[in-house]
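Journal club prep — side note

Before the paper discussion, L.F. wants everyone to see what a predicted structure for a comparable chain looks like in token form. Sequence:
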Amino acid sequence: MMKTAISRSFGFIVKVQAVLSATLVLCLMVLVGLDVSLKYLYSHPIEGTLELTSEYLMPVSVLLGFAYAERRRGHINVDLLFRFFPAKAQQVLDRIIHLVTAAFLAVMAYSFYLRALYYTGTNAYIDLISYDLVTWPARWLATFSLATFALQMLCSFATGRAGNENG
């Protein structure tokens, strides 16, 4: 009962991340489309489009979607040799892979956390002509995304399967 409630709550967080990721991709498409249109029609592009897309929209939208893709079994699996193993060996290897991946993602999340602390402390920004674009909030979003991806891998490890088909 408690395990199901935790799984549902975490599933909700993962779904919110997926919606946010899709929204950021939509914003990216609109922003770049407007920037290109304004550049070629009026010779006046939108200032900071490159910086905004490279610092926020692209990396954060990708990282936010990783946990959802894992939950839905959306990641690519290369099972050239794996499929020839007995079912029990496949289950054991699958769990080992999830555990090792979760550990690797936890280390990455911690590294991103340290960088986020540093960038927040220095109030990191990109100096544009008309304004300063702060970059440290994107580091925190990336840290959170990697942490939830690691937790989703642990959920996949605990359930003994690659994810939840019903997401």
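L.F.'s comment for the group: Helices lie at 2-42, 49-71, 87-121, 136-159. Keep this in mind when we get to the figures.
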